[in-house]
Specification:
Mean pLDDT: 93
Largest sheet: 4 strands, mixed
Radius of gyration: 21 Å
Structural class: alpha+beta
Distance between the termini: 50 Å
Strand order of the largest sheet: 1-4-5-8
Low-confidence stretches: none
Strand content: 15-25%
Helix content: 40-55%
Order of helices and strands: HHHHHHEEEEEEEEHEEHHHH
Number of helices: 11
Number of strands: 10
Shape: globular
């Protein structure tokens, strides 16, 4: 299927239309059934290589403050339309490198970013812990200075690309508060063998650090600036999660439309029932509302607004919740087909669920939005 790109006519976009159309054409020509192979590790390695060779990863890796966030969002939307793993491979390569692009030394940028953009190395972002996800202040992993190195001890979990990454951006407590480090894999004292199986398979693992030595030159920013590093990175990518949700929702609507206009029952098409029409209208309206919030946030960032915390949180919250509802409606319209393992809509049902959790759960986004409003009211 080819996604509907009517929204590219919106004033948020300035010359971005060709990028989305080119990405869609590449995805249709280059991605086959192999992207649904159960060996997610192999698929992701192949995807990273293919996207690097095609030039798409340079948009994800970036080279500065946020790059072109509208382009990043459009690419996530397109790749998510074609499959959860293409979006995952693209997005995680960006999330795992953007901290280096934003806060790394020139030496670190030169060492890691070109290889990642070319698809020759795989990146990962290691922030979450068993007792610290959305609450970054609760991190317990520690790093102590020992001469020209830091020694890391602790556990990170829910780490996407865990087990296949060539390097990790890791956050741990130091004397100066939270600091961020680039840790190469393999490294002595780093164990990424504990893999995690989730409902929509992709590479994920728990990382264990035991006396893992990291050069002091691998600190991102200054020691103690890790919280700032994490927030600056998430400020960029939180909006793109909303864009991925849009891609999944658009695919669900297209699958539902195809089924509704071809399935006959009680002497007419499924699409001829008013209840079906009402459901399709709700789905389309939710998608457009989510898209407006998503690209408003991306446009604001691209226009020079340094912090789009409220806009990004609104987009992430609304788009992921709307996508869940749209996909669920598609399953309902397809009936039994919608729950057949391997059907595109069944895959969407599994793929969409995690978006409401990672990079700040819906409930956390509501808290962020409300706190921003209250601060404004008190000013």
């Amino acid at each position: 299927m080819t996604p509907r790109f009517a929204h590219l006519d919106w004033p948020f976009f300035e010359g971005h239309g060709k990028l989305a159309l080119d990405a869609d054409a590449w995805a249709r020509d280059s991605l086959g059934d192999w992207v649904h192979d159960p060996d997610a590790d192999a698929v992701c390695r192949r995807l990273v290589g293919a996207m690097g060779s095609a030039g798409w990863l340079r948009y994800a890796v970036g080279n500065g403050e946020g790059g072109d966030l509208r382009a990043l969002c459009l690419l996530r939307e397109v790749f998510a339309y074609h499959g959860g793993l293409p979006d995952f491979a693209f997005a995680m390569q960006g999330l795992g490198t953007r901290s280096i692009a934003l806060c790394g030394s020139e030496a670190l940028k030169a060492r890691y970013l070109p290889e990642a953009a070319a698809g020759r190395s795989i990146a990962a972002f290691a922030l979450s812990e068993p007792d610290a996800g959305s609450d970054v202040g609760a991190l317990s992993a520690r790093a102590r200075r020992d001469g020209e190195h830091y020694v890391l001890d602790g556990v990170k979990t829910w780490i996407s690309n865990g087990g296949i990454a060539d390097f990790y951006v890791v956050f741990a407590r130091t004397d100066e508060a939270i600091s961020a480090f680039v840790v190469e894999a393999p490294s002595d004292g780093l164990d990424a063998s504990q893999r995690i199986d989730i409902v929509a398979p992709h590479p994920m693992a728990t990382l264990r650090f035991t006396q893992c030595r990291v050069p002091a030159t691998n600190v991102l920013g200054a020691p103690g600036e890790g919280f700032k590093v994490a927030m600056r990175t998430l400020d960029v990518f939180r909006t793109t999660v909303a864009a991925a949700a849009l891609g999944l929702a658009r695919r669900a609507l297209d699958e539902a439309l195809a089924r509704a206009t071809s399935r006959r029952m009680f002497g007419q098409r499924l699409a001829d029932f008013q209840l079906t029409q009402a459901r399709l209208a709700d789905m389309a309206t939710a998608i457009d509302a989510a898209a407006l919030l998503t690209y408003r946030a991306a446009w604001a960032r691209d226009s020079g607004v340094q912090r789009v915390t409220t806009e990004a949180s609104m987009a992430k919250m609304f788009a992921t919740e709307a996508a869940q509802q749209v996909v669920d409606s598609a399953v309902q319209l397809l009936g039994g087909l919608g729950v057949v393992h391997g059907h595109p809509v069944e895959r969407l049902y599994r793929e969409v669920r995690s978006l409401r959790i990672y990079e700040g759960a819906t409930e956390v986004q509501k808290l962020i939005i409300a706190r921003q409003m209250l601060r404004g009211a008190a000013a």
